[in-house]
Amino acid sequence: MSPLHIHAEAGDVAPFVLLPGDPNRARLIAETFFEAPRPYTTYRQLLGFSGRYKGLPVSVQATGMGCPSLAIVVEELCQLGVHTLVRVGTAGIIGEGIAPGDLIVASASVPQEGTTRMYLGGDPYAPCASFALTRALADAAGPGVHVGLIQTEDAFYATQPSGVARLRERGVLAVEMEASALFTLGKLRRVETGCVLVASNHIGDPQFVDPDFLRERVLTMTEAALEAGVHLARQKGEL
Ligand SMILES: O=P(O)(O)O[C@H]1O[C@H](CO)[C@@H](O)[C@H]1O
Ligand SMILES: O=c1cc[nH]c(=O)[nH]1
Known about the structure:
Elements: E1 16-19, H1 23-33, E2 35-41, E3 48-53, E4 56-61, H2 67-79, E5 84-93, E6 103-112, H3 114-120, H4 131-141, E7 146-153, H5 164-169, E8 174-176, H6 179-189, E9 192-202, H7 211-235
Parallel strand pairs: 1-4, 1-5, 5-9, 6-7, 7-8
Antiparallel strand pairs: 2-3, 3-4, 5-8, 6-9
Helix pairs in contact: 1-7, 2-6, 4-7
The structure holds 1-O-phosphono-alpha-D-ribofuranose (R1P) and uracil.
């Protein structure tokens, strides 16, 4: 039976899934990288596509913006039998030395959001990504990648330039809106999770980087995520 929001059956979705927030990015990824891409869900514009990359069965599934939407999508993907979930997102720059377009692999994320709090009944927790997947993402992203702590937030416009120094002092590299709930659900549902991001703006910038440049960097990020999946599948003898 199909879950409530991801209108798909077991077998429609590959065990390895990329998770962009933006549905147009999901389509771009499927059309650019997948052999024989096929859509499996369009409900609420949470677009999902499956195909193959270098022989590896892969899917890309839009999560929408924010942890509540991501959590619905991740729960339902778990019901459909996935084992690895990689967020491929965009993020605002906090860390020194990070430039627009740079890639960031999140090893953990400060859960400045209500979804993780609700799952854990308010208990303190440290949402972190799966180690082997994170290492594979960092290796595939190559020289210049930033690896470390990020922060996940509910309110895009609440973080202002005046708040950057405080987060920077704590070692936060970037802010975005989904990773901590993904990492938390990964632990709760026993699936592997990782996150790679493109730095899309400085905090407080009235605009994101140039759309053509962002598109090019999104494709570079996505290729790294897919290569990490291929690497891990080969390591496990699945490819
Ligand atoms: O580009 P995506 O993956 O949507 O990620 C970032 O962009 C959105 C905000 O513009 C939020 O979802 C944030 O996490
Ligand atoms: O959450 C986000 C995502 C991109 N850029 C930001 O400034 N914040």
